[in-house]
Please model this.
Amino acid sequence: MSVSKPYIMLSDPLPVEGTSVWMRCGLENGTEPINYAWEQENRSGLVTMLAGVNSSLINITCVNRNHTGWYRCLARNEVNQQYSERIWLDVIYGPDVPQVDVTSSSVTEGGFSVLEKRNVSLVCQASSNPASQYVWFYNNSHVYSGPQLTIIKILRMHTGSYACVAKNTYLNTSSTKTTALTVYYPPDGAPSCTLSPVNNYTDLALFCSWVGGFPPATVKWSPYLNGKNREGATNITQIQAGPDTANNSVFICHGSHVALNAPQSCSTRTWLPYGEPQCFANSSRDNEYLMMSCSWEGGFPLALLWWASSSGDMQGTPEKNSNTLILHPSSNYSGKAFVCHAKHPLAKESMQCVVRLEAPVLMTQRSVVSVFEGNDVQLTCILNQSYPAVTEITWRNNMQQKVEDKPSKYAVKQAAGWSNLTVRETDGMADSGHYWCSAANAVGKAEIPITLLVISEFITN
Model:
């Protein structure tokens, strides 16, 4: 006779760890001999066959948490085999002694240390089934219920003893872990250091500050400036002679505090701007403004730049890194020079660059051009000098009209420094005369005539 579907009888579905429990695989029908096998599936889903068990009865004399899981039995004879339904064995245990972890902390003898005004979480974990309930005590006073006690911006007054009590409400058991929490309060972050020009851009002032903490932090510069080993509480300023300082010098401020295992530091570096000052002039499109720009980019601290006339009179105001002087157009500036002065503490002497302004000067290869009537002819205008550069060379015809107004009659082609005017299909009566080439910038303008002679091919004797 075939075996019927087996079933499991369990002496206690919720045994307490350390007690005994038995499981029996029951069977209504089946011809002997009948063999039995047992299968366990743990919490993680791993299925294993219980080794050495070939009986309808399993007796666990000292059950533990590792026995928790699903069980089913297999009954088989020579005719067939059948599995039972699964049954859950839930072992009750705990709580174990809690483990306490503290975020943003350092481990100290007997506890943890944290920095003031940090957000700190004390996390308590204790193995238990059912899961533990947690209660926190601070200096023997109840302060919170739950596994994680969070203190926002912890203060020095929160130093003390913290106890986590884990409770198993099913067994009415508990365990406790007590830890000491010490709040340190060094200055926040790291020292702050910088350098700035002093004494009319001839020297460097190095300033280091690390405010806060108790006791006050101490700060000092290295290398020791001017051969002196100076140290100050909270902040310190030292003057370094600019010309005596090598380019790309690095200065480090070291800050120390009894609350820190290692000193904190900041650094600052001084270096000359690259190359030399660069200056140039340009004007707005309609020559409404004359702009002179000077720059000496890079470096630390930034260089100081100012404009002066060729006679030495300062123009505008000093600026760092770059300086743009804006003037109204005037022909009085033609032939004049403007000087940009640049000063940096690491340079022994100030540097300069010069802008010389020039009104446009025009010329032509041929001031008189002749052509046979009916042919095209080209007039050429050359820009000999101009600073700032002109944006456009313009033409007017023999009737003082802009050639752009008659694109079918005239064509203009130009590039930097020259312009060509083509007169198409010349007419002796209409096209002969003076043509005018003009150019202007913010400091002046120029104009030259070119005479066009249109010759008729039919000449009577």
User: Anything to note?
Assistant: DSSP finds one helix and 39 strands in the chain. The first strand starts at residue 7 and ends at 10. The domain at 198-270 is CATH 2.60.40.10 (Immunoglobulin-like). The chain has a mean pLDDT of 91.
